[in-house]
Amino acid sequence: MNNQDTRFANQYAIQWFPGHMAKTLRMMEQEIQHVDASLVLLDARIPLSSLNPEIERITARKPKLYALNKADLADPAVTEEWIRYFHEADAGCVAISAKQKGGANAVRAAIEKELSGLLARRQNRGMAGAKTQVMLCGIPNVGKSTFINTFAGSARAKAADRPGVTKGKQWVSTEKFDLLDMPGVLWKKFDSKTIASNLAFIGSIKDDILDVEELAMNLLDEVRRNYPDLVAQRYKLDAETLALPPYELMEAIGRKRGLLVRGGEVNTERCAVMLVDEFRACKWGRISLERPPQRDDMADFAEEDEE
């Protein structure tokens, strides 16, 4: 079977770029001039797919730290590979879970380390007490609001497990930092269909513009290729069932879960929603959908970072 025939993204051109995202990019262009650094949240399950090229372009002129958020949902061994990948490209990177207090502490320490040169210059100019101003940015649903609430120690920002909750910029102050929280933003055109799929899988694109059955089939197809045991264990599948074409596999899982309509047919839409929800809730286990590119690709990444 040709996997490409079943890939969701090759059949659907996924685009979601509402007007407020264009407005956010313009706002970021202005605000980057007034902050000391940027903190770019990426999803630890898809670090490259969640790296918005527009955000990269805007934040390139100031010190920058990448935080691989939701690391508690990702494969820990793959996350370690990603941290090495970023560090070898001379990019500051830390893996965190925004819901856990330790995540914010790790980011605080990393920000101070990344900005040590700037902070030292300030101290020399007698500005040691001045707060460090950091712009927080990333794609929709990457966990910025949850991160801010953990970082600041109180519920300052609206947090929800869906994209597009934060609509305007807001400043959040802590003892040493002023964080400028920007709304999540995508980019106008996804060059890679794999990137579009990955963003859809983790919920960064509004579900109501997607075909949920196609999404679930392709998510199943992708995950069973790299983590067959996790899918088999979750849905109690034998090897023969696990090898079925994606639609038949989804039907088999729906039948096992008793998701039937009159006449004994599987309610595939209900099954698809369940599969996507369970993946996003980490009920399949800790899964990474991307691995770092080969070393020769990394040189390009480093060059982009320096521009």
TrEMBL record:
Upper lineage: Bacteria, Bacillati, Bacillota, Clostridia, Eubacteriales
Main location class: cytoplasm
Domain G: 133-195
Function comment: Required for a late step of 50S ribosomal subunit assembly. Has GTPase activity.
Gene Ontology terms: biological process: translation
Organism superkingdom: Bacteria
SUPFAM superfamilies tied to this protein: P-loop containing nucleoside triphosphate hydrolases
Annotated protein name in UniProt: Ribosome biogenesis GTPase A
Pfam families: MMR_HSR1 (PF01926)
Cellular component, GO annotation: cytoplasm
Protein family membership: Belongs to the TRAFAC class YlqF/YawG GTPase family. MTG1 subfamily.
Subcellular compartments: Cytoplasm
Binding residues for GTP: 69-72, 141-146, 184
Protein's organism: Faecalibacterium prausnitzii
Keywords: Cytoplasm, GTP-binding, Nucleotide-binding
Keyword GTP-binding: yes
A molecular-function term among this protein's GO annotations: GTP binding
